[in-house]
């Protein structure tokens, strides 16, 4: 009898397993996966309201894929979502500040450059005018000197000519003062332009220094988030914008559903968070339907 019972059990066991997996086991996607907030490090500077907003947006990305709720927030939810602050987010935040400084400094440098170009244009015009006036003055001055030399060599000028020469001398002295004022103004403009050049070079130097700092981590691929199926835990480590946070949350929620990576660079489930799209691609949807065991799609 014992032998018969043992054999009977091994005959019934496959039937029980078949019934469980095909009829009794809960089917994926039949009810929403609940999630809750766990640890949210203050280093991110993100309010709970904004985090919940991104989580809601991330879950709706998947909702639109099947037109049904696949996730729902519950303070006692199954999946715990943590924001863990470490050097990855610190680097991202520093780079965000550096990029803002680069943008601001570049705008200031461009403004200085335009003003410099305008000053240079005016300077070239004024230098040419000064050069022309100086040439005319030199011609007048030589004519005056020649007349003075002539009358000095001939015993002196008559009274009327002497008076005219005196008036001409006074006029030349006045023109010389005007020319000197213009020369000093041109020198001041040149000095101002040189200071603009120095300021511009300093700004460009600051920009290049900030770019070099960013380039130190360029090419490094941070692991922005992870999903641990053993503990039903999503850990988020790094994001640069609210949309990027939404995408990485959507990506890890996809893993919580059982969806794996695909090869489309703009997909939510691409291995790197490169794109800015906030919708499922056809690859994402196809993989979701496989996970949810939706046939004929």
- Per CATH, the superfamily of the largest domain is Collagenase (Catalytic Domain)
Q: Order of strands across the widest beta sheet?
A: 2-1-3-5-4
Number of helices: 6
**In terms of structural class, how would the helical and strand content be classed?**
alpha/beta
Gist?
By secondary structure, the chain is an alpha/beta fold.
Fold blueprint:
Blueprint lengths: L1 H23 L8 E8 L7 H19 L4 E3 L5 E5 L3 H67 L5 H57 L9 E4 L4 E4 L5 H16 L24 H10 L6
Parallel strand pairs: 1-2, 1-3, 3-5
Antiparallel strand pairs: 4-5
Helix pairs in contact: 2-5, 3-4
How would you portray this structure in words?
This protein is an alpha/beta fold and 297 residues long. The chain has two domains: 26-85 and 237-291, Collagenase (Catalytic Domain) (3-Layer(aba) Sandwich); 105-215. Helices cover 65% and strands 8% of the residues. The protein contains six helices and five strands, in the order H-E-H-E-E-H-H-E-E-H-H. The protein has a five-stranded mixed β-sheet with strand order 2-1-3-5-4, with helices on one face. Helix 2 links the parallel strand 1 (33-40) and strand 2. It is rod-shaped and about 125 Å long. The protein starts with a helix and ends in a 6-residue tail after the last helix. The model is unreliable at 1-5 and 16-26 (pLDDT under 50).
């Amino acid at each position: 009898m014992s032998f018969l019972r043992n054999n009977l059990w091994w005959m019934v066991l496959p039937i029980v397993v078949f019934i469980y997996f095909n009829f009794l086991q809960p089917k994926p996607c039949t009810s929403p996966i609940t999630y809750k907030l766990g640890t949210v490090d203050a280093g991110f500077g993100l309010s709970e309201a904004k985090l919940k907003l991104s989580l809601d947006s991330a879950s709706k990305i998947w909702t639109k894929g099947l037109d049904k709720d696949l996730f729902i927030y519950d303070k006692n939810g199954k999946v715990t979502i943590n924001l863990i602050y470490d050097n990855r987010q610190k680097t991202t935040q520093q780079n965000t500040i550096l990029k803002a400084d680069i943008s601001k400094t570049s705008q200031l440098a461009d403004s200085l450059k335009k003003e410099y170009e305008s000053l240079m244009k005016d300077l070239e015009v004024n230098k040419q005018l000064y050069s022309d006036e100086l040439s005319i003055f030199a011609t007048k001055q030589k004519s005056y000197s020649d007349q003075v030399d002539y009358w000095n060599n001939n015993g002196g000028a008559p009274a009327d000519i002497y008076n005219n020469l005196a008036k001409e001398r006074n006029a030349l002295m006045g023109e010389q003062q005007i020319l000197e004022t213009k020369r000093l103004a041109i020198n001041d403009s040149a000095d101002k332009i040189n200071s603009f050049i120095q300021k511009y070079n300093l700004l460009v130097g600051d920009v290049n220094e900030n770019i070099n700092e960013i380039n130190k981590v360029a090419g490094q691929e941070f692991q922005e988030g992870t999903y641990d199926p053993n503990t039903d835990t999503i850990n988020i480590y790094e994001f640069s914008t609210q949309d990027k946070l939404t995408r990485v949350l959507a990506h890890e929620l996809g893993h919580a559903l059982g969806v794996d990576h695909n090869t489309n660079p703009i997909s939510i489930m691409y291995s790197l968070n490169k794109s800015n799209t906030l919708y499922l691609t056809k690859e994402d949807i196809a993989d979701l339907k496989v996970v949810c065991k939706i046939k004929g799609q």
